[in-house]
Amino acid sequence: MSSSITSYLPFGGAELSLRKKFRLFFTVGIIVLLLGGAKAVVHYFGFEFLDLNGLVTSGIGGAIFIIGFLLSSILKDYKEAEQIPTALRTAIEAVDGDLECFARSNERFNLREARQILIEVIAKLREGLGRAYHHKNISPALDELGKLTPVLGRLEGMGMAANFVVRLRTNQDAIRRVLLRIYTIQRVEFVPSVHVLVQTLVFSIIVLLLLLKTEGDPAAAMLFGFITYMFVYVLYLIRLLEQPFTKGRGSVDDVSFFLLDELEEQLRRSLDPAVGRPRLQAIEGV
Description:
mainly alpha, 12 helices, single chain, 72% helix
C-alpha cells in the first residue's frame, strides 16, 4: 500500500497538508516565544511587581468569557458562510439546466454565450476574493452577472414560456443575493466596539502576566506560555473567521470553493463542441 502513515493520524483530511493546517499554530507559537523572552527579561531585571490574587484570576476568567461569547457569534456567521457555495452552485446549475433544455428546441438561442457569462461570474468572484483585491472586490462578478439580464430578456420572444423566464430571473436574483451576502461579510466588521474590547482585553492580560510575580521555575514558564498562547491564538482566529472568503492567503480556514471549481470545470468542458454535442443528444433521448 502506498498510503502514508500520516493519513491515519487525527490531523484532518488527506487533502490538507500539515504545513497549511498548522500554519496559524506556528505563527502564534513564534509570538508566544517572543513574549516568553520578554517575560524572562522582565523577571531577570526585577520589574515584576504584581502579586497573584483573586482579582487577577477573576479578570482572566472574565476575559475568557467575553472572548468566548464573541467567538461563538463569529462561528455562527462562519457556518452560514459555509453554505453559500452550495446555494450559489444550485442557482447557477438551475439557470444552466433550463437554458440547455431551451436550446434543444430553439437553435436561435446562443447557449454558449450564456454559459460563458456563468463561467465568468465564478472566475470574477474567485479573482475578486484574491489577495490582489484585498479579498473583497465583488463588483466585477456582479457586473458579469448583469450581462445575463438581456440574454434572459430575449427568451420570451424566442418562444420560452413566461413562467420559465420568471424562474430564470428568480435564480439570477438568487445568485445576485448570494454575491451581495459575500460582499457584506467580507467588508463589514461586525460590532467593531466588541472587537476593540477583545483586543484591549488581550493586550491588558498579556501586560498583566508580564508584570506578575513568578518564581522563575519551569512550571511558571509553561503556565505563562499556555495562557498567552490561548489569548493570542483566539485573537488571530477571530481575525481569520471575520473574512471567511479569503482566496490566496494560504489558510485552511477560508470557505472552500471546491463546488464552484467543479461546476466551472464542467461548464468549460461543455463549451467544447466535442463534449457538448453528446450531452445534448443524451438529453434529447430522455
